[in-house]
Amino acid sequence: MTGNERQIRTLIEKWTAAVHRGDMAGVLAGHAEDIVMFDVPPPYEGVRGIDEYEAVWPPFFTWQAEGAVFEIESLDVTAGEDVAFAHALLRCGTDEELSRTPENRLRLTLGLRKDDGRWTVAHEHHSFPYTGGPAEGAGDGTRDVHRA
């Protein structure tokens, strides 16, 4: 593991611990002022900028205080000298939710850049796998493209 990868891994582990504690200052640390985040809940166009990013966390902290976990299960980091990306799977849910679907994981992807010699998160994307049935007509166009 390179020094950059180690620094990024530490940054992400500290962020995850801060999310779990509901520590807003720790959640914001290491994020760029112009962060772009795409999250599971709306807004559909994502959040842009550190102020919007900060504003989305309080409802999550309230839910998490009811006993939910937020912990890294796996984390992979690829880093160059000034840009990097990371992807992780996290256990995120209440005991009841995790016992109902123990295999469900929050998927996290981060884009990072080095600003003034320190790594910052410039892009963050959270998602859960879609577990519902197929939507009406879903995939019809995709199958047509692959047949051509």
From TrEMBL:
Residues 8-130 form the SnoaL-like domain. Residues 125-148 are annotated as: Disordered. It holds the Pfam family SnoaL_3. InterPro entries: NTF2-like_dom_sf, SnoaL-like, Steroid_delta5-4_isomerase. This is SnoaL-like domain-containing protein. SUPFAM superfamilies: NTF2-like.
